[in-house]
Write a structure and sequence with these properties.
Strand content of chain B: under 5%
Shape of chain A: elongated
Oligomer: heterodimer
Number of helices of chain B: 18
Number of domains of chain A: 2
Strand content of chain A: under 5%
Distance between the termini of chain B: 51 Å
Structural class of chain B: mainly alpha
Order of helices and strands of chain B: HHHHHEHHHHHHHHHHHHH
Radius of gyration of chain A: 23 Å
Helix content of chain B: 55-70%
Radius of gyration of chain B: 30 Å
Helix content of chain A: 40-55%
Structural class of chain A: mainly alpha
Largest sheet of chain B: none
Strand order of the largest sheet of chain A: 1-2
Largest sheet of chain A: 2 strands, antiparallel
Amino acid sequence: MLPECRAGSPASLSRLESRDLNDRQTCTGDRKAEDYMWSRANQLFCWASPLLPCCWCQVSRFCPPRKSCYDWIGPPDKCSNLRPVHFYIPENESPLEQKLRELRQETQEWNQQFWANQNLTFRKEKEEFIHSRLKAKGLGLRAESGQKATLNAEEMADFYKEFLSKNFQKHMYYNRDWYKRNFAITYFMGKVALEKIWNKLRLKQKKTIN
Amino acid sequence: MAASPHTLSSRLLTGWVGGCVWYLERRAMQESPHKFMHLFRNINKQWITFQHFNFLKRMYVTQLNRSLNQQVKPKPEPVTSPFLEKTSSGQAKAEVHELRPISPPSLPLSRKANEKELIELESASVIEASIDVGNATKEEKQWKEMKLHVDDLPGILARLSKIKLTALVVSTTSAGFALAPGPFDWPCFLLTLLGTGLASCAANSINQFFEVPFDSNMNRTKNRPLVRGQISPLLAVSFATCCALPGVALLTWGVNPLTGALGVFNIFLYTCCYTPLKRISIANTWVGAVVGAIPPVMGWTAATGCLDAGAFLLGGILYSWQFPHFNALSWGLREDYSRGGYCMMSVTHPALCRRVALRHCLALIGLSTAAPILDVTTWTFPVISLPINLYISYLGFRFYRDADRKSSRKLFFCSLWHLPLFLLLMLTCKQPPGGGSDKGEPQS
């Protein structure tokens, strides 16, 4: 269904150094081609279909320059407010590094899903609350000036309280899982760092012997 | 980013473009989504597709309700900067609009009708596509390499350790040390400040480490280093450890074990009690108030080596001060707290929130009166501190009665200058040493 990450140099992507499909650092090097869309086509698909809520879109599939050996972090997602990370896959990735990367990737997707859903639900329920209160007051959805009618902070307080208590259990489960994942990621980061240091020392040792 | 295509498209819809646009929109609305996808697949027709669907995108953007744009929530009112933190955005927002000449499509489309539309709309599409190119480039420019530059590290660590809050904590510790009876020992004083500062840095770093996704979703905290990926979680934890260990060691062996123990306890209370409790129960505010109260107690114990009435008085003053300060601040953040899942009094028990703030404003008057009774200050102190205490109580009362944003902001800003002034007055009215023994002069 989704278009492949293509080679060539469309105007906006000419700034990026490589569009080579075989290059590991580009989209298809580390993922299936179908997983990636040309970023603008992606946005277009999203915008072209008014039936799809914004949060169902994939995040912009940015492809970092070939020379870069680091992860790249993007602007905050419009739905979840979380910044997506494009993970770098080194050529000689160890099993531990792979495990870490996959854990981070999976956590990122899990976080994205939770917060996108959370924010969307909040916005939707807030709108419904405003509509129902305005209706109860006998006011229309638009003020006389033509602008959207809103309630003041004190009127909204009831909604905030209700929303918080309604989602309390959900947040408890999320908090518990988030703490677990955060600790696990940091633990594996530590292990990977130690592994790298150990490999460097071994390499140095070999060089001095030679 | 959602705003600029909308603005541009509204301009482009004027004049003769409008007619063609309407025609195209009608055609596009009648097409099934599958046909769009079919067009997408053809790689060689990328520019045709691009121009065509960019234009369609503009159509849908203008036709759709604004609320369907990709903004999760409208921008909130400007939030006051709490705890002296800056909330300025550090993101680069270079506006690049590239107007490139786009060659007409060379390959035929599968459907003739689209060709016709494209020829009609080519000139409009040229500008559209190039502006969209600019937007896409702008979006791609916002991607940053997660490479740590050594030059940036001090700034990043300063923000990670909430350096301004740490400075406030250190100054309350110094007030505690200075107000304590006994000779003023400069080396001990400096070690206490350094140790407390390091402990505070460690605690703040761990707090940020725990709260990355929550901080991302709140305007006040969305520019923190871990949220922006400027530093890895491992580095944040390492930094915290590198601050906590020497900090506590300094306090324990450089000052005295009691101060060291209080330092450890405070780090634990802040990171392992207050931080998780924020999402579980409103009790977090009371725990947080204790966290704020401990530094001046540490200053006192560093000077005297014991926990006596004066230490508890100072702790009590800072404890009471936290409530008008934080409750007023949290009043304007109710939406963010509700959405983010934070259990704060301002959301769950608004009346209690205001009542507690007022109660503790009045308690400050009581505590200033207790100061001379406990021989911490002279009787001048309750008298000269009465005006500022009455003023903050008045603002507390207004907040209690009016319960609006204006009164909450006034109370919050008052609390920011009230505390330093209050401590300063305390220092100037410090009880002079009795019996003519060699004591240090009041520090100011």
